[in-house]
Each structure stands twice: as C-alpha cells, then as structure tokens.
C-alpha cells in the first residue's frame, strides 16, 4: 500500500473557512441545521421534505427558506429527490453546538469525591468552571505545574454537554474516561481535536531540577514538579499537549504484566493508580541520541524500559 505525500494534500483555504462562517452567521440557517439534526436517525437516513422543514423551522415565506437552503447546499445540507439531509460537515456543526463549547458557561461548585490526592493522600474536591474540570486537594497546596493554582492536582478540558444528566461523581468518572482516551490518542500521535498528525516536538529535561517534594511544589527552574516532559503539537490544528514521560510506560504490555504479576491490575483505571507513576524512576542515559530509562520497582523486582526521542521502547529488562 502506497503512502500519501503530504505535499499533495490540499490545504484548507482561509477564504473557504471565512465563507463557511458567513454561511452560519444567519440564525435561520442554524435553525435549519438543528431541525434536520432533530429528525436525523443515525440508523436510517430519512430526508425531510421541504413542506415539513418549512413547518418545523416556522418560516412563512417559502422563497426565504429556499434561499437559505441554497446557501447551505453543497457544504452543510444535501438535497435529494425525497428532501433534505445533513451532510457530515453539517452534523459536525450541530455536534459542536450541542457540546456547548464556546457557548455554554456552566459552573459546578466544589463537591467531595471518593478518591485520594495522589500527592498527600488527602480528600480532593471536584468542580467545573470555564470549560475545565478541576480536582483540588483540601489537605495540601500541591502545585505540580506553575500554571495551576495552589491545591489543584488535576485540571482538564471537558465539554459542557458531558455535564447534562449526570451527578458530579458520574461527571468525574466520564471525565476520567474522556481524558484517558484523549491522552492515549496523543501518545499515538493522533490529534484528539482534529485527528491530524500530532508528533512529538520536544522532550524537555530540566538541567537543574529542584522541586519541593515535601510540599509538592513545582521546580522554579522548569515550572513543573516532573523532571522530563514530552510535548506533542498537531501539524494541522496546532493543538498542543504536554505530559510527563512517566505516562508513556503505562500502556506497555510488559508494564501491565509486571504489575499484574504483583497482584495489581494496572491500567490507570482509578485516580489512585496515578500514585504509582510517582514511584517510577527516571534516568537520562544520553542526549544524542536521546535515551531515557524509566525503572519500576515492586517488592524485590525491577522492570526497566529505555525510550528513544519518539518515546518508543528500544530496550527492556526485568530482574531482581
């Protein structure tokens, strides 16, 4: 199978994108998209006839509705012999509206959740504001990165639509699953936002790493409590994701088997399991070529994995 040459793939024209936004700036056109979505059946695509669409959208002038349908045609709505259906681009627009991103701004006050702070073991509280899920410890002022307020042990993006119909505990669980899949996608170099190529752009190691582990405070030299950080940037939409190297061994079969042999089902299935990551030992073997060794110790046994600049395992050993 031959591979595609990226240079031959047509890039999005900014003028085309601007035209698309102009098309959607009209309230009636958005109502048409949402109406077609309401009657859309994922299992069976049934076109909506003009008369029914006019009644649902509540447009008195048929010429006016026809004008807006023509504007949406070939981009968001397809006309068939039996009526009108949403094209994939139209479905994506409605899904974005339904997700509430950049539209809704809900807030959920802090509520205690049945997990432990992976820094001090204290009681965290879950809250939601400005499109972000916060997990804050009520017992310590841990600050793993400079951009986090004191006490925030975890902060992730989560769409407002995920809040609907769920209790805070259920939202917290959904967020954990949502975040785990997005993180896995990033580690596989696929952008969780647009599915574009998302390669590693840098693996940064702090030359003078001095975090305050007694108070769980970040190193002032690099702004993180973690010594080594990996950055991925999407080549398509420029979405950026940064995370510790410690996450990369978590999905390797040898690591899962190593924990399982010691009676631990390790898959980061719970927030408590993240405390295992803090016990991983890192060593910079060489800078050129980059080689990073991450060792995991359980009881009287040790598993060591060596990673290259793409955070792929190039060597592994297990012993006492």
UniProtKB/TrEMBL annotation:
Record domain DUF7351: where: 115-313
Entry-linked SUPFAM superfamilies: Winged helix' DNA-binding domain
The UniProt entry, under CDD domains, shows: HTH_ARSR
Query: Which InterPro entries does the annotation name?
Result: ArsR-like_HTH, DUF7347, DUF7351, WH-like_DNA-bd_sf, WH_DNA-bd_sf
A Pfam family assignment: DUF7351
Give the DUF7347 domain ranges.
18-97
Domain of life (superkingdom) = Archaea
Q: What is this protein called?
A: Helix-turn-helix domain-containing protein
Organism, by scientific name, is Halogranum amylolyticum
Taxonomy of origin reads: Archaea, Methanobacteriati, Methanobacteriota, Stenosarchaea group, Halobacteria
